[in-house]
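Side project, low priority. Logging it here so it doesn't get lost.
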Amino acid sequence: MLSVSDTPISMGGFETIEVEVQDGAEIFTHPTSFKYENGSLVKDESFVIESAKKDKIELLNMTCEEEILKPFTATNGHVYAFEMKDQINFNQQLSLITLDESITEIIWKTEDSGVLVHTRDEFIQVVANAETHKRSNITKYWTLKAQVQSATTIEGIEAITW
């Protein structure tokens, strides 16, 4: 027998209700997925769906962050690292060339061709490509998150993938 405290009574306490369930019943592995209703335990579908949505959104967010940190290919055909330290370095270098117009060349490491000399305009374009890389992943996340939030079934939620 399983005791379920679910029905509020006066003074803020709960009434104990005894319900028979079979050994190995799903309630033992997912107890929060059930509620006591009309004298029996029933699966709380709305809770299950909301929980699945939350889990899927967390997974999509983690995937988005992983994708952002991957190298990107700029319009110049070269591949650039984009880990957090790389993003910081891009921002710092862009700030320097914005503040000091006498800087005409930027030496930057690529993933495919090693260290290359970039003109000021070439480097600004690479930074713009980096932003496009980041923004496209964020936009994809927002789109998928909205799809998850509007899904109405577990199957619909599971069908949404990166």
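Brief comment: Helices lie at 26-29, 45-68, 84-99, 120-150, 154-158.
Revisit when time allows.
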